[in-house]
Amino acid sequence: MDFLVRLAEGFIGMFNAGGKTFVGLLTGILPTLICLITVINAIIKFVGEERINNFAQKTTKYAILRYTLFPILAVFFLTNPMCYSFGKFLPERQKPAFYDSAVSFVHPITGLFAHANASELFVYLGIANGITALGLSLGPLAIRYFLVGILVILMRGLVTEWITVSMMRKKESQA
Predict the structure, then answer these.
(1) Which of 34, 55, 94, 120 is deepest in the core (most CB within 10 A)?
(2) Going by C-beta distance under 8 Å and a sequence separation of 6 or more, which residues neighbour residue 63?
(3) pLDDT reported for residue 25
(4) Tell me, what's the pLDDT at 64?
(5) How many CB atoms lie within 10 A of CB 94?
(6) What angle do CA 42, 43, 47 make, to 5 degrees?
């Protein structure tokens, strides 16, 4: 009998935990994202979509800028997860690679700009605690983390774009 009671309590407890998580999202990140989306769309309307598109085209003309500067700007200004919306300014064949670059940069940026991905700051702080326990400065760690992140997002962007273009060509040749 005791087993059935614990099973029933555990079963309903799972849904209670899910409800708490849902309410946390509704009162936490969801309003923030809605406000952020509204502000970004307003800025695009005020500045002009054509100007934004021209800026995006200039910063994505060359692959090195497309997979370094563009994701850095997206993550810095829009933070995680809104930064992925910058992909709307890219042609379809470059969107997967941009996403790969941006998603790969949300951690390396936290050492210098914690606002960009505050929810994952614990990853950086875990490493930082070890460094400070050794009596070392966090500045060099944050800068190295940032620079290595730029190198990684460039490599991931180039490889993902190559794979995407190859798959698109293969699909077109089969059609």
Answers:
(1) 94
(2) 157, 158, 161
(3) 67
(4) 94
(5) 22
(6) 120
Q: Provide the whole-model pTM.
A: 0.70
Q: Note the helical H segments in the chain.
A: 2-27, 29-47, 49-60, 63-66, 69-78, 95-105, 121-133, 138-174
Prior bond of 91 cis (ω within 30°): no
Question: Are 59 and 70 a contacting pair, CB within 8 Å?
Answer: yes
CA distances from 39 to 30, 35, 53, 88 (A): 14, 6, 17, 16
Distance CA 98, CA 56 (A): 12
Determine the Cα–Cα distance for residues 128 and 123; give it in Å rounded to an integer.
9
Question: DSSP assignment, residue 83?
Answer: G
Convert the pLDDT of each residue in 132-147 to its tens digit: 889 988 888 889 989 9
